[in-house]
């Protein structure tokens, strides 16, 4: 694989091979080998619940574990030490079948103790939608995040050949295709979970 340079990124954006909408400030957002992305208005955080654990075998909707927040422009979302929240990029991304992408945190955010993804930094070829960010505060101080703030960057890599079954292919379970807001885990739809005869480890309240 090879990482796209700013020259290649600009060319792919011009031809529509890569879509980033809205890219309001290309001169500021396009970096030497990445594009800075901004945080949107919508956030999700875990509720305090009575259940002893999150069990993938439980058929309960994962949304019931979380509460949603809409933050107006110019207002902060405060993430406290030890907290975890889901957010979404302001921009919608669309990838062709022969490019993959990675989301990385910006150094300026990392130096505040804020990580922008736990494990889901990889974006498959063919993906279209906003990117859900998995935000954690591993520092010792609360940090304010503002809508429209550049918090992460996306890096594009070429594949050896186009994917035969890209993300969104009819024969593939693409659970997060077209997402527009922070999406909770859809692990219960994984084939090994969905088809399992195992029972949840706890009784429902």
Automatic annotation (TrEMBL):
Hey, which pathway is this one from? Pyrimidine metabolism; dUMP biosynthesis; dUMP from dCTP: step 1/1
Summarize the protein's role.
Answer: Bifunctional enzyme that catalyzes both the deamination of dCTP to dUTP and the hydrolysis of dUTP to dUMP without releasing the toxic dUTP intermediate.
Record's superkingdom?
Answer: Archaea
Record lineage? Archaea, Methanobacteriati, Methanobacteriota, Methanomada group, Methanobacteria
> Where does the chain bind dCTP?
106-111, 124, 132-134, 153, 167, 175, 179
Organism in which the protein naturally occurs: Methanobacterium paludis (strain DSM 25820 / JCM 18151 / SWAN1)
Gene from which this protein is expressed: dcd
The UniProt keyword set, sorted, is: Hydrolase, Nucleotide metabolism, Nucleotide-binding
Catalytic positions?
Answer: 134
Q: Which GO terms describe its biological process?
A: dUMP biosynthetic process; dUTP biosynthetic process; nucleobase-containing small molecule interconversion
Q: Does the keyword Nucleotide-binding apply?
A: yes
Stated name of the protein? dCTP deaminase, dUMP-forming
């Amino acid at each position: 694989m090879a990482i796209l340079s700013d020259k290649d990124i600009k060319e792919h954006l011009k031809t529509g091979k890569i879509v980033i909408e809205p890219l309001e400030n290309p001169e500021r957002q396009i970096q030497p080998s990445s594009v800075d992305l901004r945080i949107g208005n919508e956030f999700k955080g875990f509720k305090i619940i009575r259940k002893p654990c999150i069990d993938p075998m439980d058929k309960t909707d994962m949304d019931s574990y979380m509460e949603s927040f809409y933050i107006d422009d110019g207002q902060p979302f405060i993430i406290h030490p030890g907290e975890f929240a889901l957010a979404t990029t302001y921009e919608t991304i669309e990838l062709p079948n022969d490019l993959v992408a990675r989301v990385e945190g910006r150094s300026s955010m990392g130096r505040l103790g804020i990580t922008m993804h736990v494990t889901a930094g990889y974006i498959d070829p063919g993906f279209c939608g906003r990117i859900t960010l998995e935000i954690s505060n591993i520092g010792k101080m609360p940090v304010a995040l503002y809508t429209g703030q550049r918090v992460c960057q996306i890096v594009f890599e070429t594949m050896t050949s186009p994917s035969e079954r890209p993300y969104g292919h009819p024969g593939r379970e693409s659970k997060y295709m077209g997402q527009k807001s922070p999406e909770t885990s859809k692990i219960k739809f994984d084939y090994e979970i969905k088809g399992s005869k195992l029972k949840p480890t706890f009784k429902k309240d």
